[in-house]
Every structure is written in C-alpha cells, then in structure tokens.
Amino acid sequence: MDYKAIAQKTVQEVLGYTQDTSGWKVVKISKKITVSSKASRKFHGNLYRVEGIIPESAAKLSDFLYQTGERVTWDKSLQVYDIVHRIDSDTFICHTITQSFAMGSISPRDFIDLVYIKRYEGNMNIISSKSVDFPEYPPSSNYIRGYNHPCGFVCSPMKENPAYSKLVMFVQTEMRGKLSPSIIEKTMPSNLVNFILNAKDGIKAHKTPSGRGFRHNSHS
C-alpha cells in the first residue's frame, strides 16, 4: 500500500474542506468554540467542522497536537495513542483507542490511522488523518474497529497576534457497530468542544517556567 500517496491525497481533501463554505449548519456554540456540520460525501453520517482560538503559535500547536507521548495526558477522549509504524519524519501510522462516550452507550473504539503533517507558507500547518489497513494491527475482538474518513487539524496564526492560532478541526468518523445515528449526532458536538478545551488546558499545563515543555520539531 502506498501510504505516502494516500497521505498526500488526504491532506489535499482536508485543505479542500477549509475552502468549502457552502452547506454548513452551526450545531453548537460554547465557550467561543463553534461546531458546524454537513452531510459527509464519504459515508452516511456527518462531516464536522470545529473552530476555536488557541493561545499558542501555529508551529508549536501543530507539534503539540500529534505528539504521541503527551496526547493521552490531555486528550480525555483517548485511552491509547501510539505510533505503530513510521514512514518518514512527517508520516506515520497511529493506533488509537477511545474512551466510552454518552454514559457508556458508545463503547470504546479502536482506529488505525495514517497521520501526515504538511507545512504551508504563512505558517499554516495541516495534520491530516485517515484510517487505513495495516496488517500488523488487525481488528481485535476487544474493540469495535472504527473508521476515520479524511479528518484533520488546520493550525494557522492569527494575523493580529501570531502568538495565537486559529484551530479548525474536521472530523468524519464512522463509529460502526450497532449505534443509532441520533446518539452520535447528540454526543459528537459536545465531545468536539471538549477536545478543544482539553487541548487548551494541555498547552497551559505544558508551559513550564523552566522552559521545559513540548519539543518543537523544526524539520520542514
């Protein structure tokens, strides 16, 4: 499987979502975070767009969002986030296991995702992800294997204050299993707001006075 080609196609799709201005419906606004949705073209479910402002530069924010060692310390939606195969410095395959949601009515899922970081001019960074087959990690009987259609984080500096970033997140997750779409539609917007709030808290916790924090990878 040509993972690099899949990664490059996925990041282009995510970039396309940023330029798609039609058909979005605002489904939740909370704590200056806006969640919009529209019907996905990939499956019988929704594509969600989440927008918020993060008090960190775009470069450091994008590094923070994909660093596997730190992710589960702040992302309360995940039990496990591990790199299981590295293709190059910007492309890797991750295995994630989610927590249960909706008072336990949505059981944990596991995902195998191809993650790719692409840096654009103007300090905009996109972290794209898409589920792929990876023979070394077949589905197990312990979890329902979910599927992420093209998803991503888009981190771009605020023009008026580059120390702050606009984070736009696109999510279109096929939970699979025997879930009614209404349960997913009721719980997803709040979960997405919580993700942004958790990321803000995580960044705050990692800004230590001694200068020890998350590492900034300067590769291009």
Molecular structure report:
The protein is of the alpha+beta class. It has a single domain, classed as START domain (Alpha-D-Glucose-1,6-Bisphosphate, Chain A, domain 4), CATH 3.30.530. It is built from four helices and twelve strands, in the order H-E-E-E-H-H-E-E-E-E-E-E-E-E-E-H. The protein has helices at 3-19, 58-66, 68-74, 181-206, and strands spanning 25-30, 33-39, 46-54, 78-88, 91-98, 109-119, 125-131, 144-145, 147-148, 151-158, 161-171, 173-174. The two termini are 25 Å apart. The relative contact order is 0.23.
Question: What key phrases describe this protein's structure?
Answer:
alpha+beta; two-stranded antiparallel ribbon; 220 residues; disordered C terminus; Alpha-D-Glucose-1,6-Bisphosphate, Chain A, domain 4; 10-stranded mixed β-sheet
Number of helices: 4
User: How far apart are the first and last residues' alpha carbons, in Å?
Assistant: 25 Å
Largest sheet: 10 strands, mixed
Which word captures the global form?
A: globular
Range of strand content: 35-45%
Overall mean pLDDT score?
91
Which structural class is indicated by helix and strand composition?
alpha+beta
Low-confidence stretches: 210-220
Question: Would you list the SSEs in sequence order as H and E?
Answer: HEEEHHEEEEEEEEEH
Helical proportion, percent range: 25-40%
The CATH superfamily label reads START domain
> What's the number of extended β-strand segments?
12
